[in-house]
Each structure stands twice: as C-alpha cells, then as structure tokens.
Write a structure and sequence with these properties.
The chain has 179 residues and is mainly α. It is 75% helix and 0% strand.
C-alpha cells in the first residue's frame, strides 16, 4: 500500500477516535475532538497531493478517498444531530447529496467515465468542514461577540451542498437518460 493510501486509511481510523472524544464528555473534550477532526479532514488534501505529486494514483485510492471523506463528514453530522447541535434536516440534505453523487459516480464508472469534482463541490466540502468545526467548539470565539458564525456557515454549506448537487446532476444528466 502506497503512502497516499495509508494516509487515507489513517483518516478512516481517526473517525472512531473523533467519535469517542465527541461522546465522552470531559473538560475540553470538544476541542480535542475538533483537533482530531481537523487532522482527519486535512489528510484529504495531503493524500491527494502526495498521490498526484508522486504518481501514486490507484484504483483503491480512487475508491477509498471519497469514501473516507463521506464517512468523516457523515459521522460528524450524525453525532452532532444526536447531541442536538445540528438540525436533522440539515444532516439529511448533506448526506442525501453524498448518496446521489456517489450513485452518479458509480453509474459513470460502470460506463468507463471518471467524474471529477467541481469547484462547487470543493467549496461545499470546505464550508461543511468549517461549519462542523465551529459547531464542535461551541462557536468559539464568536460566542464572545454573540455572532452565530457556526449557524451561518452551516447554512452556507447547505446552500453549496444543494447548488453543487444540482450542478453535478445537470452536467452529468446524460448518464441517467433512458436509452
């Protein structure tokens, strides 16, 4: 297994660590959980960079990398919903988009087509990660000025989630047209 894929696997192994830190409450558990989440989320850029730079792109990497991303974000959303910190509808919209796009990618793959991520998808991912981190740390430091940064960025991420899904579906609509 190459370095890029090992980094991706590390992201998957960090998910249970993150979840334990979220669910077992002790002083500063949320900041430790946020740190683990940040490290895990950061590995997404790192593994992609290493894979491209060192020509380590593999079919396993193409499969496991987006799966690791979805597992990380989905796990975070589910635990935040369970703690009453994220509305269930928000999580449903975000997770549904991931299922839909994964379905499109599987369909494209069966036809030998690779669907690249768009800039909208990248903005969606960044806003989701920023929102999740802000919510985990209790909107720190914005609580001191009574500014709901966490909620604002969460709903911005929902907007980008929906827009990126519509864009993705529209651009790849030929995949689902009847013969």
């Amino acid at each position: 297994m190459n370095l890029a894929n090992k980094i991706t696997i590390t992201r998957i192994f960090l998910i249970p660590v993150f979840l334990v830190l979220m669910l077992i409450e002790f002083k500063y558990h949320n900041f430790l959980a946020a740190a683990v989440f940040i490290i895990a989320a950061s590995t997404d850029s790192l593994d992609g960079y290493i894979a491209r730079k060192r020509n380590l792109i593999t079919n396993f990497g193409k499969f496991i990398d987006p799966l690791a991303d979805k597992l990380l974000v989905t796990s975070a959303l589910i635990v935040l919903v369970s703690k009453g910190q994220v509305p269930a509808l928000v999580a449903i919209i975000i997770i549904s988009r991931e299922f839909i796009i994964t379905g499109f990618r599987l369909l494209a793959s069966s036809e030998g087509v690779v669907l690249a991520a768009s800039w909208l998808g990248k903005v969606k991912t960044v806003t989701q990660i920023v929102a999740i981190i802000a919510i985990i740390i209790g909107n720190f430091p914005f609580t001191y000025i009574n500014f709901p940064f966490d909620i604002i960025v969460l709903y911005i991420s929902v907007i980008f989630t929906v827009i990126s899904a519509v864009d993705y579906i529209y651009k790849n609509r030929k995949l689902v047209k009847e013969d």
